Amino acid sequence: MAFGDLKTDKGVDALDKFLKDHSYISGYQPTQADLQTHQGLAKTPDVKYSHALRWYNHIKSFSDAEKKAFPAGGACPMKTAAPTTAPPAKNDDDDVDLFASDEEDDAEAEKIREERLKAYADKKSKKPVLIAKSSVVLDVKPWDDETDMEEMQKHVRTIEMDGLVWGASKLVPVGYGIHKLQIMCVVEDEKVSVDLLVEEIQKFEDFVQSVDIAAFNKI
Hints:
Layout: H1 9-19, H2 32-40, H3 50-60, H4 64-68, H5 103-125, E1 133-142, H6 149-157, E2 164-175, E3 178-188, H7 194-202, E4 208-218
GO cellular component, one term: cytosol
Protein name: Elongation factor 1-beta
Organism: Aquatica leii
C-alpha cells in the first residue's frame, strides 16, 4: 500500500481509505511507521477524511516518551526501502550443548539458561504498557437558531482533563436554521469518564440544550 505525497489531497485520500480497514499503518499497535506517516502530513486531515482524522488524533495524543517507545513495526508505505540482506542471526544456544553428558557442562548450561531467562524477564518488565484510549464524537445541541455556536465551541474547548485531547469539529444543520456542534475528542479510558465529560459540557446552560454521544470507538 503506497500513499504517495501526503501533503496532497490525493495522498491523504489514499491514507484515509487504507485506515478504513486498519487501525494502524503496520500491525495491531502503534509503531514507528505510524509516527513517520504522521510526520509526513502537512496538516491535520480534513473532517471529510474521518478515518485518517481519527488515526491522526490518536497518534497525536501520545506523549513524546510514548512515541519513542513505539516498536519499529513494518516499513512506512510512503516510501519503498531498498532491500538489504542481513546476516543470519546467531543462535546463542549453538554455543551450549544442553544435552552434554558431562555434569559440569550440564551445570554451566543450566546457569546460562537461567541468566537468559532473567534477562528476558527484566526486558519484558521494562516494556512500556500501551494506554487504552477511545475516540469519541459528541453532538452538542443548542437551544435555538439564535445561539452563538462559535461561543459554544469556545466554552466546550475550555474543559480540560488529564487524558482528554480535543480534535476537529464542525457545524451540522439539523433543520429550521439550527445547527449542532459535532466535535471529536480522544480520551484515556482510565482517566476520563465520558459521562462526566458530557455533564461538564451541559453546565454551559446558556448555550447547550443537550449532548449526545454520536460515536464511540476503542483505539
